[in-house]
Write a structure and sequence with these properties.
191 residues
């Protein structure tokens, strides 16, 4: 028939444990209950986990953005924070974690269009983290080309040059056209 071994701190969370144990005993299934001292467990073990990776869903080529990481630790500990982009390590830093939630930011920019994956991993010394499986998270962002502004002017050499310089300084790609050519240029864009 089998045997059930229940390890518990004695504090109920959800469900009907007492009824389940009673039903098992009625079916002549042995139930062994071992209580452990949760406070003593917490004194001897630490748990570190990566709980959030925040980055924009979309950015423009060359645009600077922050990748935010939130790491939870039950007690103060030193660790290594490793950040990878598309499988390549782009940052690895020693960090000091305080008890509770810890927030870190990494500023970066991407030059290649497309979808890019970021992975964040927290590395701890042996004995400083009880469960290693929750130490990494991933997120993705989509990189788009910068917008192109089509400037239509009768005076491309005068006003056009000034506006193009302003737009370039603001990070926009600019094309200049005269009104007579606008129909052909728009048709090219629709393709």
């Amino acid at each position: 028939a089998g045997r059930v071994v229940l390890l518990s701190d004695g504090l109920p969370t959800t469900g009907e444990v007492q009824n389940s144990i009673f039903n098992l005993v009625q079916q002549e299934v042995p139930v062994d209950v071992f209580l452990f001292d949760a406070d003593a467990w917490h004194e001897n073990y630490n748990e570190v986990q990566t709980i959030a990776v925040d980055l924009p869903a979309a950015v423009r080529q060359g645009e600077t953005f922050d990748l935010g990481v939130t790491i939870q630790s039950e007690r103060p500990v030193s660790s290594t924070l490793r950040i990878s982009q598309d499988g390549e390590i782009i940052a690895e830093d020693m960090i000091a974690l305080d008890q509770g939630a810890n927030r870190f930011n990494h500023t970066t920019a991407l030059d290649e269009e497309g979808v890019h994956a970021f992975a964040v991993e927290i590395l701890t010394a042996a004995g400083n983290d009880w469960q290693l499986q929750n130490n990494s998270l991933s997120a993705v962002t989509h990189v788009y080309a910068p917008p192109t502004i089509l400037l239509v002017t009768d005076e491309p050499q005068d006003q056009g040059d000034y506006l193009v310089a302003l737009l370039d300084d603001a990070g926009f790609e600019t094309e200049v056209s005269v009104p007579e050519q606008i129909h052909a240029r728009l048709s090219e864009r629709e393709l």
